[in-house]
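Batch job 17 of 40 flagged for manual review because the log was empty.
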Amino acid sequence: MTTQTHGFQTEVTKLLDLLANSLYSNKEVFLRELISNASDAIDKLHFLSLTDPELIKDDPVFKIRIRPDKETQTLTISDNGLGLTLDEANTHLGTIAKSGTQEFFKNLSGDAARDSQLIGQFGVGFYSAFIVADKVTVISRSAKASPEEGVRWSSEGNGTFESGFMPRNQRGTDVILHLKDSETKYLDEWVLREAITKYSDHISVPVELYVEKTIEPAEDATDEEKKNPKKEWVFEQINDAKALWTRNPKEVTEDEYKEFYKHLSNDYQDPLIWAHNKVEGEIEYTSLLYVPSHAPWDLFAADNKHGLKLFVQRVFIMDEAEQFLPRYLRFVKGLVDTNALPLNVSRELLQESAVTSKLKKALTKRVLNMLEKLSADKDKYQEFIKNFGQVLKEGPVEDYANRESVLSLLRFASTRNQGPETNVSLDDYIASMKEKQDKIYYLTASNYEAAISSPYLEALKKKGIEVLLLTERVDEWLMNQVFEYKEKRFVSVTSPDLELGDLEDEKEKEAQKEAQEGHKDLTERFKTALGSLVKEVRVSTRLVDSPACVVADNGRMFTPELKKIFEATGQKLPEETWILEINPNHELVKKAQSFDDATFPRWAQLIFNQALLADAGTLKDPQAYVKLVNDLLLGK
């Protein structure tokens, strides 16, 4: 054969260096990865053979074989699946196939235990072979190629690999590991048997191990023959070879569910929760759904690939079938197996199928029920919210039919908390409402610190009214689309006409009315000083400790955070007109009031700019504001 030497993609070289230094805390997972790859190759060929039986006519029985050889110190994992062409070998084995490798390396911390958990998120399972091998050889032939188009690929994991054509009669792939001297235990039958049973028992094709068997002597054998019976080497099936999701859930152990999740998702951490259901009736289907314990790196990427694996009558049809769950549940992993779809179903047919719509509705309900069950464990649910809470907040807008169910699953920080933990549900909020309270009050801000110290909270804090503190970007969009929960209206505390309704007694209302009338000269003086910068100045009913705040005239179309998002994309937004609310009892306002008409406008400008700064966190001309403060401090 003629071979060519190629350089690995830069990221692969870095990864191989990590693997060579035993990044994995549990080295035997290499076997799980390579068996999973072999299983995937068989699944793909099985699907193609439905429409082209010629592809498997010479070898119709699918199997994975593992052969240890102590003489050559090699371990070979073979399959009779789809196989590789030379271009595919160079591309898939020389490059980390999934995008996001730079993100992967950016997340490496130098902590081996933590870093090892990242590997599975980036589709690098094949390279785990270099944990135990100092050389890997791959011999393959595509099911669509001729015997002369077999492929040989090899590398010592040192930055380069060799590849070329070689004759090969059978389809499929052999991955040959030339084991390091320190890893020869993986040639031992019992070590391999235990690892296969532990990690790959759920694989739905036979996994066979090459073992030495004793041949029972015949009844008429001599004493010598009975004493020293003959032995032979045979392939013995080790796994159960029954698709895990087809088994009775009562017969499947927790460890089996966890290992199947890792096989299914290429994740190295256990899932938070799962649900395994078989449904009979108008549409028969089996689903096995998992919620991961951590978010993938590309959860918010525009081209994020997501969806369930689709099986039809136990035949693998496609990965990432996104039609079965709404996008806000894109973090869910799992599969659906149904006999209600044709075996030759395509993505286009799925999109238009009435069966797909019914399955989507049922599976969405299943996931929401699973999350409701998870919420009973506060620690686990807090971990879920930390990882997926922002994605879940897309749900009330995207999925109107399940709006209230999704809203009940959201969690928020609030003024009742002693910190930024997002652990208050809307049901919690309603249960702790003050007597006579009929609204859900909230505040959006760029972060928790800005929210909890906001002047807009002062009057509500004084009355002991809880306010939800929304500090994630998605919150702006959410609250512009969702207006009530269980007949309780959402009200922003920055609303220009904030009213507390029955929470205010008649004495307070009368006092506020008197305050407006009694300080009419002061509000007019501020309006004259600020001119066109404000539409109106009035005495505030919401301030206690701050001198002033601003509210947008006629309500707010764009909150400060949403405005930043739009402006970051280059969109020009209309200028807002402000109403300035002042606290006449604050010392700064009293001090400003004491100055003459020549000096007062500068103090009014200072108070107005402070209010803008507290609201938006920024000013159009911060340098002018700094100069104004300095001049007033110096008595200029």
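Reviewer: the log was empty due to a logging misconfiguration, but the result itself is present. The chain has four domains: 3-237, 244-386, 411-502, 506-633. Unflagging and moving on to job 18.
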